[in-house]
Write a structure and sequence with these properties.
CATH class: Alpha Beta
Order of helices and strands: HHEHEHEEEEHEEHEEEE
Strand order of the largest sheet: 1-12-7-4-2-3
CATH topology: Rossmann fold
CATH superfamily: NagB/RpiA/CoA transferase-like
Mean pLDDT: 85
Radius of gyration: 19 Å
Strand content: 15-25%
Number of strands: 12
Low-confidence stretches: none
Structural class: alpha/beta
Largest sheet: 6 strands, parallel
Helix content: 25-40%
Number of domains: 1
């Protein structure tokens, strides 16, 4: 069987499979979210966010103390880390080796793809979709894209029920002066364009990690 025949055989086999039912359990009520959450207490939102992001091949690690998040970073032993210079990240990366701090007005991106890990804060998170919202004025445009691992530092007060609430939060923060770029990241970069084989890291980081801490543990973004 030629390569072409093998590909066509796989497609024919895949077409025989029934499509799964949508995974939501309720229809939206009025203007409500498409995937209604059972309630909005913090632990339920964290559980929903974790389940959704992990289904998209992301990771969530919740810590009670900054020292625990710091110990996790030490344990990963990233040989080099790229991070925007801000008080929130300095509180977590205070003695982690290999960190290069980038100021907001840095004009170059040269060599950023050679760093093992990029660590950024987030504006907010959407539990419904397992999404991380990253704004250019907080972490730049490329720091969450070029290194193969993207680590996000977040606090529980940034965890919102859905994208609708997240975008309202963004509008409340910025008003009519929105940042030049607002990225909604749902899991690591991935594609299945070639033979329906999932490949991580196709157009960006192949690993996305969210480190979640209590809001009292870190300075504001």
């Amino acid at each position: 069987m030629t390569s072409k025949e093998q590909i066509l055989a796989r497609i024919r086999q895949a077409l025989k499979r029934e499509s799964p039912e949508p995974h939501w359990l309720h229809e939206p009520a009025g203007e409500g979210p498409l995937f209604p959450l059972p309630d909005a207490d913090p632990q339920s939102l964290l559980g929903a966010f974790r389940a959704e992001l992990e289904s998209l091949f992301g990771e969530v690690h919740a810590f009670a103390k900054v020292e625990d998040a710091n110990a996790w970073l030490h344990g990963e032993k990233f040989p080099s880390i790229l991070a925007p210079e801000c008080e929130r990240l300095k509180a977590v990366l205070f003695d982690v080796p290999g960190v290069t701090w980038i100021q907001k007005d840095n004009p170059t991106r040269k060599g950023w793809e050679d760093f093992a890990c990029g660590v950024t804060p987030t504006i907010c998170l959407s539990a419904e979709s397992g999404s991380v919202l990253v704004a250019a004025d907080v972490s730049g445009r490329a720091m969450s894209v070029l290194p193969p691992v993207h680590v996000v530092v977040a606090t529980m007060d940034q965890l919102l029920p859905d994208l609708d609430e997240a975008l309202k939060f963004v509008r409340g923060r910025y008003g009519n002066k929105l940042p030049s770029t607002l990225s909604v990241i749902s899991g690591p970069s991935r594609t299945a364009d070639i033979e329906k084989i999932l490949v991580l890291g196709a157009h960006g980081p192949k690993r996305l990690v969210v480190l979640m801490l209590p809001e009292v543990a870190l300075p504001a973004v």
